[in-house]
Amino acid sequence: MPAAPPPRRAQAWTVYGLVAAAVIAIDVAVKQWTTANLAHNEPAEKILGGLIYVIYTRNSGAAFSMMRDQTWIFPIIALGVVGWLFYMIRGTASVAWAVALGFILGGAAGNLGDRLFRAPGPFRGHVVDMFSFLDDHGGHFPVFNIADSALTVGVALAILLEFAGRRRDGTRAQRG
Questions:
Q1: What is the pLDDT of residue 126?
Q2: I want to staple 104 with a disulfide (CB 3.0 to 4.6 A). Which of 33, 67, 120, 154 is the partner?
Q3: 105 or 52: whose pLDDT is higher?
Q4: What angle do CA 167, 169, 172 make, to 5 degrees?
Q5: How far is CA 172 from CA 110, 160, 163, in A?
Q6: How far apart are CA 2 and CA 46, in angstroms?
Q7: What angle do CA 132, 137, 140 make, to 5 degrees?
Q8: Is 129 in the active site?
Q9: Are the CB atoms for 30 and 130 separated by under 8 Å?
Q10: CA angle 148, 153, 156 (to 5 degrees)
Q11: Which DSSP category does 166 fall into?
Q12: Alpha-carbon distances of 63 from 23, 68, 80, 173, rounded to whole Å
């Protein structure tokens, strides 16, 4: 039987799993609500006085609908990212790093689920997006979803942790 991880590492792993699970659950719930309630060209739901609109759109490509005809590549990249994240968490004892990695895992897994299980079929599925800034048709900013937001937050947090000298093992880099 493998040895149990040290307490700090076990705590980080728990946080990582909980953050990823929460992101996936919220992402799936919002996508289901959007698909059920806005799928028939209904008007956009206005939030915060028009700062954000909730609309229904399907994206076969990446951000800005890039590479729409190469949909198959995105689930392969996402599977690689998920594998890399499981490798990264092995040496992580920092709760802050666990939060960052959990956000990234949840975001990657949320969009991977769409790529694998939504129409038109496995490895070709289109991602459900629903949030638009300042426009009810995504005219000012790409339409995005909870998974996209989690990826962005996770990557930004990881960059901040790197610049702050916080290591995944819970130590701080020496200033030199």
A1: 93
A2: 154
A3: 105
A4: 40
A5: 32, 13, 11
A6: 52
A7: 60
A8: yes
A9: yes
A10: 125
A11: B
A12: 19, 10, 18, 34
Eight-class DSSP state of 39: T
Catalytic residue among 69, 129, 135, 169: 129
Q: Please confirm, yes or no, whether 148 is among the known catalytic residues.
A: yes
Active-site entry in 27, 69, 148, 169: 148
Q: What is the token pair recorded at 129?
A: 């997006």
pLDDT level of residue 160 (50, 70, 90 thresholds): very high
Most confident of 1-5, 31-35, 134-138: 31-35
Whether 139 shows a pLDDT value over 80: the answer reads no
- Which residue type sits at 114? D
Residues 6+ apart with CB under 8 A from 106: 19, 20, 21, 22, 23, 24, 27, 147, 150, 154
- Tokens representing 122 are 């496995």
Please report which confidence band the pLDDT of residue 50 belongs to, taking 50, 70 and 90 as the band edges.
confident
- Give the mean pLDDT of 56-84: 82
**Residue 120 clears pLDDT 80, i.e. is over it:** yes
Distance, in Å, from the CA atom of 152 to the CA atom of 68, rounded to the nearest integer, reads 21
Return the sign of the alpha-carbon dihedral for residues 80, 21, 160, 132: positive
